[in-house]
Amino acid sequence: MNTRKPLTWLMSALVGVTLSANAQADDRTLIEMPAPMQEHLLGNMRDHLHALDDILAALAEGDAATAGKIAEARLGLSSLDDHGAAHMAPFMPDGMRNAGTELHRAASRFSQAAMNADVEHTFEAQQSVFAALQNITASCNACHDGYRIR
What we know:
Helix 2 (35-60) packs antiparallel against helix 3 (64-74). Strands 1-2 form a two-stranded parallel ribbon. The chain has helices at residues 4-22, 35-60, 64-74, 85-88, 94-120, 123-146, and strands spanning 29-30, 147-148. It is mainly α.
């Protein structure tokens, strides 16, 4: 008896169900903004991802102080001018703007937690670093889960 045919059918059915689920309408709020602003925002978000990668690399090396410096310089409240936040904000609804602001606040809090962990060298200090890092990514997820620009 050839068991491949039923297995192939089952796999095809599962793939079809998965593709149908993924093809659902995107119900996130579409934010209309001029193309140059979209590119600017996407560039900022790519830099945010690179910054998170650099932060994780520093933490993997055991260098919490460098991770904190990266977070503040590239994601924290002190980075708002570099990201052009003032000219981007008018194109964002309140919820999106609030999520962005929370991202920058969370990064500044992470920076402080990382600096403390670099001095304290305790398990609790390390746990606060990971919790603060998760707050950054939670802010990213809140925005990406609710909004899209194209």
